[in-house]
Every structure is written in structure tokens, then in C-alpha cells.
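Side project, low priority. Logging it here so it doesn't get lost.
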Amino acid sequence: MIRFLLRFLGLLSLALGFIFLVYDGTKSIADQRLYVSMVADAWAMVHEGSLAQLQPTLQRLVPALWDPVAVTILNAPVALVLVVLGALLLLLGRKKKPLIGYARS
């Protein structure tokens, strides 16, 4: 059941990454300049309150995690983050290979 959920979320994440890639591409073609959606901007469009609560929460729990990790992810392109997340979820949810020969013991 958990593998199914991981694969489903991985495929959903890959699909959303592709949607954001097409969105950025069409916006770039329309404006005739390069446009890349950042994670912080997309998160603010969905739910700005939780984005504002993220920094104090992370700095309270793990102070060293905010500046190098969270800031880098929030300033990364949405399509890239979603594709990497989807690939990781698909790898975690893949079916195990059947054992062959003497490796069964």
C-alpha cells in the first residue's frame, strides 16, 4: 500500500513539474523573455501563511537547516524541484526485483 502511495505521489509530482515547465515556457514565449517560476512564488500563490510560518519553525527546530538548505530550495525552479521529488518518490516506491538463484537465503 505504501509503495502504491509513493508511486502515485511521484507520478503526480512529475506531472506537476511538467505542467510548470509548460507554464513557464508559454509565459516566456508570450513575454519574449526567459521566465522561471520559483518555489517560493508558487508556494505564496497557494498558501502564503504557511510560507511565512516556515522560517520561524525551521529556525526554532533546526537552526542550521534554514539558510543553506531551505533558502536554496525556495529559490530553485518549481519544475526542477518537482521532477527531482517525483523521481525520488518513484525510486522509493519501486517494486523489489525478484531474487534469482542462491540469493534467496
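Brief comment: The mean pLDDT is 91.
Revisit when time allows.
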